[in-house]
Design a protein that fits this description.
Helices cover 72% and strands 3% of the residues. The chain is mainly alpha-helical and 309 residues long. The strands form 2 sheets. Strands 1-4 form a two-stranded antiparallel sheet. The protein has a two-stranded antiparallel ribbon with strand order 2-3. β2 and β3 form a beta hairpin. α9 packs across α10.
């Protein structure tokens, strides 16, 4: 039971990071009907920006507590990621809103490769260690262990998702986002500025990715120029699993995918008689994804966005 509980904790930690990234995919798709495949690189930029800020703090204020340093790294990474995301929207996507869907999709892949190349030129090819800022002593829960970094990660993810839900459901911006997702033309006739809504959507998604990027680096103690590709792909899969265009579906899909991966890594060896090891956990997760989409193509919670094809 303690091993099972450990896998559940690991899955919740991993799934909460997937959920934060998946929200960026699903919000942009909901408003623009666009899959922003460069979003995974925003995660990477957040982690790299946070690392750079920590290096500066070592010079300027080396005696700050680790928790304060981590908070400053996240606060500094958020505006960097937001600025990069808004530049991408303005330069790469805005002029392609009325183009065939394949054009912005190929552009997004190109932007992803471009961001990876720029990051490689700035920070280098080799993985860079991310400092251990919080206490390394784990907390024991019924025989399972969870680190202070993972506890902070879960708390931040829960707070961010709750805050986004309040913004979408209770604020004027949230109503504008939902109206634009339903029908941009009608929303414009009702006085909604679609450009401002789209910019706000990209900014919110980038801020969530920045938080996830810094916490991903802190959890795994490593950063690299290509670190955002695989988490971005899995987060997109999580958004599809939950229901692309549905923010609650993205949250659910992220957590489920994290749990599936963690449980798969823990038990796939036993289930296959030792034929497959824990490094094949991706197979287990995507088999479940294919199965769900075969039975329910719109995802678990369904797509809330009107089809504007």
């Amino acid at each position: 039971m303690d091993i099972f509980l450990q896998q559940i904790i690991n899955g919740l930690v991993l799934g909460s990071m997937y959920a934060l990234i998946a929200l960026g995919y699903t919000m942009v798709y909901g408003v623009l009907n666009l899959i922003n495949f460069a979003h995974g690189e925003i995660l990477m930029i957040g982690a790299m920006a946070g690392l750079t800020i920590l290096r500066l703090l070592e010079i300027v204020a080396p005696h700050l507590p680790g928790g304060v340093q981590l908070a400053l790294a996240m606060l500094g990474a958020v505006p960097v990621c937001v600025a990069v995301s808004l530049v991408i929207e303005r330069v790469a996507y805005r002029r392609l809103r009325n183009a065939p869907r394949l054009a912005p999709l190929i552009t997004a892949i190109g932007v992803s490769i471009l961001l990876q190349t720029i990051a490689m030129m700035i920070w280098g090819r080799s993985p860079i260690p991310f400092p251990q800022l919080l206490s390394p002593e784990p907390v024991e829960i019924a025989g399972a262990l969870i680190s202070h970094t993972q506890i902070l990660l879960l708390a931040l993810a829960l707070a961010a998702m709750a805050g986004l839900a309040l913004v979408v459901e209770k604020t004027k911006l949230g109503r504008a986002m939902r109206a634009t997702a339903e029908s941009p033309r009608v929303a414009g006739l009702m006085g909604v500025d679609a450009n401002r809504v789209i910019v706000a959507t990209f900014a919110i998604g980038a801020a969530l990715a920045a938080i996830a990027g810094v916490m991903w680096a802190a959890n795994y103690s490593s950063t690299q120029f290509a670190m955002g590709f695989v988490p971005g792909l899995k987060a997109f899969s999580a958004a599809v699993l939950g229901g692309i265009g549905n923010i609650y579906g993205a949250m659910l899909g992220g957590v489920l995918l994290g749990l599936i991966e963690s449980l798969g890594a823990g038990y796939i060896g036993d289930l296959t008689g030792g034929f497959l090891g824990s490094n094949y956990q991706d197979i287990f997760a995507f088999i479940v994804l294919v199965a769900v989409l075969t039975l329910r193509p719109s995802g678990i919670m369904g797509e809330r966005v009107a089809d504007r094809a």
